[in-house]
Amino acid sequence: PPLSEILNLHDFEAIGRLTMPEKAWAYYSSASDDEITNRENHAAFHRIWFRPRILRDVTNVDWSTTIIGHASTMPIYISATALGKLGHPEGELNLTRAAAKHGIIQMIPTLSSCSFDEIVDAAQPDQVQFFQLYVNKDRAITKRIDMRMAFDAEDPHEIGKSGSDKVDRSRGAAKAITGFIDPGLKWADISWFKSITRMPLILKGVQTWEDALEAYDQNLAGIVLSNHGGRQLDFARSGIEVLVEVVEKFKEKRGITFPNDRFQLLVDGGVRRATDVLKAIALGATAVGIGRPFLYAFSTYGVDGVDHALQILQDEFEMNLRLLGAGTIKDVVPDMVDVSNIRSH
Ligand code: FNR
To answer: Where is the FMN hydroxy acid dehydrogenase domain (predicted)?
Structure first.
């Protein structure tokens, strides 16, 4: 169907299932084990309800924000997802170009199909991109990746070795492409990352308030509350539910409220609507990551699909901010959500 018939992000999934290359559909749509966490990522949003306010002037609404110091037209960013070329020959470049058009941030994955150079070259001169780093067992490679990101160019071929082109495919796709990741990574290593970069560091995959507090105490710039789209530990809780717990505990243990600029909370998993995003914002998140919908969008429609997906979100933000009675993202406050169905721990 033409893009004009695609009315929401769910539609991209339904069409992708019918039109995408089979391998791409299998890799993009799947999750771990029995996919309980993947389903929970959606279900958790269904337990949160709005408390919209009325008779507030919402003639002009503005849903732009700042994520880790960088302007974004929406409180969303494109999550890092591996192997973009499975779905479309231009792979991650579709995301780069649509992100530029809409003024949002793309998180580039370590395991991108396009090279780091291709992705950075496809970006506009002033376009901000984040980089998702899988830490190599060989820390010299991780260090060189960082230097490359700071545009202090070295041998580009060396960087490729950390990615998907040097893999042992005898053990299945997932293991093959992640075999270089260091399972020995620990909290004490954070000081080493700080020593090799001046870029802000955010930690992805936090799933408890205890680890969130540790990240804060280690002076990181923020965390992503994420179970990686239900693709890692099944029965991990949803990011949105962990967010409620984290915000409560930071208030109790440190007297800190969110959002704040010293330490930002990002969330991902199961976000498909601006209403999902606004729930996270109300609860204290700065922004929310979205993964699969953009993969389905470019697999069927290329860059135009991602552009259309982002335009749908822009339209949903405008409409739903008005309906919520909020003029700006700052006006989306905790009182605007009812979390009584999840405040049970
Ligand atoms: C991912 N994700 C991911 N995360 C990461 O840090 N590095 C990676 O290489 C990948 N690869 C990847 C591939 C595919 C196909 C998917 C669907 C996801 C996880 C991703 O960053 C994000 O956490 C989830 O995709 C968010 O959930 P939704 O929006 O897909 O429900």
So the answer is: 1-342
Strands 129-132 and 202-206: unpaired
Dihedral sign from CA coordinates of 276, 284, 43, 344? negative
Active-site annotation holds for 261 = no
Catalytic residue among 228, 296, 307, 331: 228
Cβ atoms within 10 Å, residue 64: 14
Question: Quick one: which of 48, 46, 118, 123 has its CA closest to 78?
Answer: 123
Beta bridge partners of 132: 109
**Angle 98-103-104 from CA coordinates, rounded to 5°:** 80
Instruction: Give the model's pLDDT for residue 178.
Output: 82
Angle value at C-alpha 229, between 227 and 331, nearest 5 degrees: 80
| Annotation marks residue 134 as catalytic | yes
The first and second tokens of residue 112, run together, are 């991108």
pLDDT in tens, 32-84: 999 999 999 999 999 999 999 999 999 999 999 999 999 999 999 999 999 99
Q: Is 8 in the pocket of ligand 1 (CB under 6 A)?
A: no
User: Cα Rg for the chain, rounded, in angstroms?
Assistant: 20
Q: Is 88 a catalytic residue?
A: no
Both tokens assigned to 109? 């994955």
User: Which parts of the chain sit beneath pLDDT 50?
Assistant: 152-169
Q: Decide: 294 in ligand 1 pocket, CB within 6 A.
A: no
Number of residues written out for the chain? 345
Query: Cα(313)–Cα(298) distance, rounded to whole angstroms?
Result: 16
Q: Is residue 82 in contact with ligand 1, taking CB distance under 6 Å?
A: yes
**At 279, is the secondary structure helix, strand, or coil?**
helix
CA–centroid distance, 190 to ligand 1, in Å, is 23
State residue 156's pLDDT score: 32
Q: Please state the pTM of the whole predicted model.
A: 0.94
